[in-house]
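User: Predict the structure for this protein chain, please.
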Amino acid sequence: DLRAETNGRVISQPLRKGATVLADQPMCEIDPGTRGVSLAEAEARLAESRARGPEAEARVIEAKARLDEALINDSAAEKLSQGGFASEARVASATAATQTARAGVAAAQSGLQSTLAGIQSAAAAVALAQKEISRLIIHASFDGILETDTAELGSLLQPGGLCATVLQLDPIKLVGFVPEMAVQHVKLGAAAEARLVDGRRILGEVSFISRSADKVTRTFQIEVTVPNEDLSVSAGQTADITISAQGTLAHLLPGSALTLNDSGTLGLRVLDADNTVRFVPVTLIRDTVKGVWVAGLPQEADVIVVGQEFVTDGVIVDPTYTEAAR
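Assistant: Here is the predicted structure, written as structure tokens:
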């Protein structure tokens, strides 16, 4: 949302929604009114304040010179008085002149500080007037597409008033939610694929993982950044997101091959090289219509899929092999 930072009447022709805009392109222009006069006045005050600077510095130099002269006279009067060549009145007069000179230096320095403060105040007024003028033209913050018309010619904008809404669709962010049991497997930069409702598939990578769970669903928000140069993906579309995670070795077996040992541990019975039966604990990863994915087996294993309930560890059998389904 591009919003006004100052008030005024719009003097630019409107751009219509759907138009492509570029970063820093003018969207709305506000009537400057008397802002130019205010800037000229502030610049004149700044020039006047700066012109007073050398005069104030000269007064400080002059006051310091008078103080030096008064100190010399005071020192001479003191020495003459000690020798009996000057009266006490002269010494008192020299001391008073020194104090007056010191006061003059302090006043001159105060005047210089006041002049410098005036210069800073005038410079601030100029900067404020320039900033106010820079707010008259509202620019696009990035390349995008106009979602709304810009403000109409002659309309009045107040601070915070909407000039236009610009959408940035390249890249586009896909927002999804991951269950708390799976969020630890999602990493920043991980490859992701999204399937849109029309069947298209787009590729991107994870750019954000929330560290705060949703209070209702207990899921964690993630964002996937996807290139969208042709702008074929629009804001608000629905997508199913699949995120790649670190893989693990697993085997697909019929669910009927699973069994329990005497301790109630889930596993499979396999054959060693000498056809000796051995129980191997496994971890169930996923149950599918084609079978179960299990982890915990070696790369290659002879798994007993028929008759495993009739043998125990250490028994030597005469196996009959069947071709593994792929």
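The mean pLDDT is 89.
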